[in-house]
Amino acid sequence: MNEKNSSHLASPKTGPALRPFWIFVLGAAVTVLAVSAIFIYLATQTIKTGVSSLHLESARRAETVISDSLGNFLEALERSADEIAKRGALPQNTLASLIKEKPELERISFIDKTGKELLRLDRFTFVTEGLLFDFSESEGFRKATEHKVDLGAVFFSQRNEPLMTIFIPLTTLRGEFLGALTADLNLKFMWNLMAEIKIGKQGKVYVVDSKGNLIADPDPSLVLRGENLLGRIPVKKLVGGEIIVDGLDPDDEYKNFAGKKVFSTGNTLEQFGLFWGILTEEPIEDAFLASRRTMALGMGLTAATIILLIFLTLTVRRLTRLTVTLEEERAHSSSIVHNLTDGIVEYSTDSKILLLNPEAERLLDVKSNDIAGKSPTELKRYFPQKTGPLLKIFGVIPSVGKIKSKYGDGRTRVEELALEEPTEKTLEITTVPVLASGGKLLSNIKILRDVTREKVIERLKSEFISIAAHQLRTPLSAIKWALRLILDGDFGALNSQQHEYLQSGYDTNERMIKLVNDLLDVSRIEEGRFELALQEEDLASLVETTVASFKDIAAQKNVKLLFLKPKKPPAVIPIDRQKIEMVFQNLIENALAYTPGGGTVHVAIEENDNSLTVSVRDTGIGIPHEEQERLFTKFYRSAGALKMQPGGSGLGLFISRNIVVGHHGALEVKSEVDKGSTFAVKLPKNRASPANLKEAEFGEFIKRI
Amino acid sequence: MFRALIIAIIMVVVGGIGALLQYSPFRANPPKTINIGVVRTPPALDPAWEGFREKMKTFGYVEGKNVNYIVIEAGKDLPETKAKVAELLNKKMDILYTMGVLPTRAAKEVTAEKDPNLPVIFGVVSDPVGGKLVAALSGSENNLTGVTPANELISPKRLEFLKEMLPGMRRAIIAWNDPKTTGIADLRKVAKILGVTLSEKEVKVPDDIDKFLDSFAFLPGDVLFRATDNVNAARSQKMLKFSLDKKIPLSGTNAFDAESGALMSYGANYRRVGEQAARLAHHVLEGAKPGNLPIELPEEFELIVNLKTAEKIGVKINSEFLAKANRVIN
Predict the structure, then answer these.
(1) Do A297 and B156 touch (CB under 8 A)?
(2) What is the pLDDT of residues A590-618, one digit of tens each?
(3) Integer CA distances (angstroms), A696 to A399, A662, A700, B113, in order
(4) Which among B11, B13, B160 has CB closest to A126?
(5) pTM for this entry
(6) In Å, how far is B1's CA from the nearest CA of chain A?
(7) Closest residue, chain A, to B191 (C-alpha)
């Protein structure tokens, strides 16, 4: 409902009633925010833990491949050591074969049991005797004497490549110590191993030695640059003795060489007593892309929820206000309906009674509460005694005095109903549909108007006219006959002046008689006593006879009166000959009266499939368009008619139309001012019984209003 | 009111889709096409070009799609090579990849003049520090980085292998142009220890080698030892032919030499050198500064023996030595 239209109503209550609602809305918004925050936090934590697990898995994989590779080297060296121990000779070929098979070995030497280097094979350098070294004081050799394998600390070559010296004891089967093999293993083989392990698009695994020096990285350039990474917290933790760094501590993040902040995890390679750190790193923006997506999604959803909440709130608030307004409107409408002097009965499309106002309750002698929600059919079944009048207005039980009148567009219907109970009364029942703006039928309303008093007055008026007319007709007839006898010279000859005066009196008396007759007819019509006696008649002969009776009058007025007789005799139809003759007389009389001298009046008969149409066409003064409909009402006379024929009663066309309608026919007019008029009487060929004239007249009345 | 609600919902949905697209692949920019200027030194260093190109594919550089190689060949001398490189730079290049000392020097000088920030990645440049191409192996301090085959480091080892392979060798004949890349000083020391006479001749231009070879009086026990410098590279085919014609064993510097007919070669695997250079190029294309990337040494050296040549020139090689070879051509 438009608020402007209801502005005359009191302002809706918005304050105290809505306050709890706002508290609820605020609470809902806070809840949404809290739930979203928890969801985002938990999701982020889960993702972070997941990323940490994946990284640590990569670190463990790196640890495995490095351990395996180192194990392979040691195995190859130990195999060679066993071979040498068996042979006991200088192992030139064995070592040559080993250095060829293992390109990662840059140097390999044979040391006797005193620690003196007896043989050295170097991948790059030519070795002379003077270069041979005494290892007796070295830690590696000392361990070898204890029959232990030793992997020494990482050192860097001149080319900055990381190397590690390995000592393998040479022991006979009987456990006799023969010396040792020592080799320099170039650790750059790990670079390619690291390059094989991928973490996302930009992540990687790298290795630091026990001092934090970078010894393996997918990017060898970084190793060759001789980077020490102790500045990185995870490296520091691993070198400091922690076995695993899960990266979940925010301090573990650091900026990598590319300047990007990275997520990092790591574990310690403890095997072979190395204590190297194996670390992973991945730019945070990549590692937590899923987390960021989740957060964005979560925030988006939260924002969407809050926006929707706001709109919902506004909508509900507005609806609440509208509801208040509607309630008031309803109270307003209800008050109007309650106080209406007409009865209102509203019923649904399935005929359930929805509403009765007090006047309807009074008229129908029922209580709204007793019948609300029930259909007339149900009421007939369960409460036929109490709801008689109501059932009658719905036509569920017949009413003796029912008069039907219909008009309108097919939706609106007006009826009159005479009720015997609770008191005798006549109701005018207007049934109208209640339509939505789109035309949808919502319900129907019956408007009940008590017209008993009007009916009584109408009847009294008719009776009065009837009595008055009857009382007038007798003396008027006597006067007529008396004047006729005098005019005919039965009481002696009259001079011309006497004759003229008496003739004038006679004519006036005739008009009076006609007026009285017309009034009596009208009275009969209104009382429903104007009965038609239908008989099969030849309409053509009736018309011809009627036209012939006006020949003299036409000649006097110098108007041509022509009857166009049909070539083929028209069908015989059921009519009340006397009444229809009245109609034709009235129409021809009018045509002659309102056609100036020299004019023409044509009367014709036209036959169609279902009807005969008699038309009376004149070349008279014509009738203005706006007056044409009113021609058929009682006592109406157009301005032109009053000028030309001041003595008319204004009842002829009213009576004529009622007669024609009583035959289920139609009397229509087409006219143009100063050109003439055509009145057409259309009568059906087959109609067994006459129509109720009262109903027809009433219908016309309704149509006019 | 409901229209406003629908508009709000549409805004939220559109905003949400926008936010999701923010992290979606749709956001990625279309790949830029990179132009890489390549200066070849065919045919000896072509394995370094093949290795480079193949390795680049593994980094996602697909020719015709996101990378274009504009390839030229080195000229016969520095001025000609510089002119060619200068012409190459008339087109917009993202990086240069050069193979050999001559193209690298030309690239360094031309870029210093025309485009000092244009990264130059080199492969197979012996002793780049001694040759003053870079400041140090740890970092060039200029727009260059790359991989050195370290020939100067392993030349003495090659001589050692040669003596081991041919115990009867008395003289190693070497015509050198660049003492640094050749590592001539270390060669002299090791030759002495090995008991081999180093018959050396300094040459300026390739023609000098021809003259030297034509005039030198070869004796039994002589072995040709090709030096690792530009002048020798230019005459590698001539030396191979000479070796086979005169039945004088020739020691080459890389696999291509042995494959072409040298009795043996010891040196870096140039294909692997090319692969290493590709990795450096990838780093540079991702934003690393060449001056910060250390010069890399080869990841793999290989000893190759050509038994066909041994047969042709009537040399016998013992099986113990053959066992040491990474590859034997027969």
Answers:
(1) no
(2) 898 889 889 999 999 988 888 889 999 99
(3) 20, 7, 6, 116
(4) B160
(5) 0.58
(6) 7
(7) A126
- What whole-number distance in Å separates Cα of residue B279 and Cα of residue B285? 10
A34's CB contacts (< 8 A; 6+ apart) are: none
3-class SS string, A121-143 = EECCCCCCHHHCCECCCCHHHHH
Going edge to edge, which strands form the sheet with A666-672?
A560-564, A600-607, A611-618, A676-684, A666-672
Q: Please answer yes or no on whether A103 and B154 come within 8 Å at the CB atom.
A: no
Give A248-275 pLDDT, tens digit per residue.
Answer: 998 999 999 888 999 999 999 988 888 9
CB contact under 8 A, A124 and B153: yes
What is the ipTM for the molecules in this complex? 0.78
Please list, in sequence order, all residues whose beta carbon lies within 8 angstroms of the beta carbon of residue A686, skipping any fewer than 6 positions away. Answer: A573, A574, A610
* Mean pLDDT of all residues in B166-183: 93
B242 vs chain A: nearest CA distance in angstroms?
29
How long, in residues, is chain B? 330
Beta bridge partners of A538: A572
Nearest CA in chain B to A300: B16
Rounded to whole angstroms, the Cα distance separating A184 from A197 reads 26
Q: How far apart are CA B316 and CA A223, in angstroms?
A: 44
Strands (E), B170-236: 171-176, 197-202, 222-225
Judging by DSSP bridges, how do beta strands A572-575 and A535-538 pair with one another?
antiparallel
Q: Which residues contact A41 (CB under 8 A, 6 or more apart)?
A: none
Question: Which of A628-642, B62-76, B195-209 is the least confident region?
Answer: A628-642
Q: Is the peptide bond before A398 cis (omega within 30 degrees of 0)?
A: no
Amino acid at A373: G
Strand runs labelled E in A212-357: 214-216, 244-245, 254-255, 261-269, 276-283, 343-348, 353-356
Chain mean position to CA A8: 31
Average pLDDT, chain A: 84
CA atoms of A513 and A589, how far apart (whole Å): 16
Do residue B138 and residue A128 have CB atoms under 8 angstroms apart?
Answer: no
C-beta atoms of B299 and A315 within 8 A: no
